[in-house]
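Dear Dr. H.,

I hope your travels went smoothly. While you were away I took the liberty of generating a structure for the chain from your last submission, since the lab meeting agenda had it listed for discussion. I wanted you to have the full record in hand beforehand rather than looking at slides cold. The sequence, exactly as received, is reproduced here:
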Amino acid sequence: MSSNSLIIYFVLLLALCSTWSTAKTSTLNLTESCNVNQMYFCTLTNLSSTLRDPLLIANATAPQLSELVLRDSILPRIPRSLLAQAPALRAFFLHNCELQRLTVFDFPTGHPLHTLVLQANRISDVPEKVFVPLHELQELQLGRNMIHMVHKNAFAGLERLHYLDLQQNDIRELPATLFDELVSLEHIDLSSNSIQRIDVNTFVRNTKLQTVLLGDNSFATFESNALEHLSHLHLLDISSSNVKVLSLESVDTLLAQGGALENIVISGSAVKVHAANNLLNKLEIGDKLSVRELDLHGNRLESLDCMVGMLNLQRLDVARNQLKTLRTFESPQYLPLPNLVHLSLSTNQLQNITLETFLLLQKLTQLDLSFNNLLNLDQRLFAPLINLEKFYIEGNRLHSFDYEKFVESHEYVKEFGMFENEWEYRYMRTMVAYLKEHNIQLPGRFTSNSNGNSVGNHIDTTLNSLSTSDKAAHHRYASTASSVNDFDTLDTDMLAASSAATAMTDISGIHPYFTTRDVLTLVILLLVFLILLLQLFSILREEEYLPNCCNRLARNARTHNRRRLEEEEEDSEV
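The corresponding predicted structure, in token form, is as follows:
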């Protein structure tokens, strides 16, 4: 038999086996597939059917089946006969089964299904009134499909629906009346789509909404008051979107990281606001006593006036803003935040801090003042911080700090970030030895790879050469692996290198101003350079090493001077 004949025979054999396998798996016997111990909750995998030959159900009914999961199969249509044979079914999952389309004939009329999960399939659109037969449905999940169109009456008849998941699709438009019949809706997830518009009519009848997830969309239009009528919001997520102004009545947790927010106005209460890496310059919260956490790093705040009155605030992160002072309009001497536990002021433009600033922050356990423009710090500033555990002042221009009195008056301090200042080498070495003796960790930077995974947790003095932007982007701390004993590995040469690198960092212009010493040094260098340049020019002219054009000019000048002298002599003789 030739090789071509063998190949043809083998292909035919595979086709016959495939046909036999399909014929075998297109008929499902629930009694055999779901054993006696699984008749209430059953999971089936590796089923197969086609549009022409849908999945058939044998062996009468499954009256006790309550939850059925079909996953990792090939089922381009919903097996309607299976639902008909399970009259007590309350939850039906069709996960990763290559489901292609939904029709109004897929579900038996009046079926008491409560939960329908059709995730990770290939559904491209949601037709009108497709779920009308499921009038008891309370949870519908259509996430991770290929849905690009949802018809305006797609959710007709679902007055009892509480939970709707449409995340990770390609939905671009939400018809005006799409959610109007979902009067009981409490949770909706529209994140990771391509939605273009959210206005006041989008959720106008969904007044019971508690969770609204709209993150990772590129809204062309997002009306600022589109969600203002929702008075029971527990969670709102608009992260990674280009919403500029947001108005709310109240919200327990607001997630709005990595967007274009410029203004947030919450007329009522807010417990947690995470709005990092935006363009925020204004924040208004009516019920200030309700606020517990504010993460506003990476914005454009110029003052802390909006925090005045937040007496219950526990965590405040305003790193990488534009703060030049900690004074506020209503409280110019001290920060009135008596319950604050965590405060990050890193990477701002702070230059001076008054002795009364931290007077009311007795509960503070972590204070970050790194990468500012601080020239000196009086340790008496921190005397009220009796519970301080972590303290960071690296990346400033400090020459000295009374670390001994600071340690003596703060018995709970276990981390002290002090590198990248203008310490003299001997002074820094003495400080390191003292802190080591008192078992205080000297945290280095927490570096990570491109995937965000940790690749180091050690002190690396070479990081002193980072630019300002890199310092701001990688401003993370981590304790050494085995307390400060690891610092024994730093020998004299490494400490000297650290000091030299710090000095180089200061000259490179990390700070946005020059000291008198810097100006005088620059002037002297310019004068020396000018003198050397003039001497070099004089030597080259004498040795006639200048270019021809310069020599020609010199000769013309000498000839002109000679003629002028001759003319003057002739005039004097006359």
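Two observations you may find useful: Residues 292-511 form a domain with the Leucine-rich repeat, LRR (right-handed beta-alpha superhelix) fold (CATH 3.80.10.10). Confidence is low (pLDDT under 50) at residues 6-25, 445-513.

With kind regards,
E. W.
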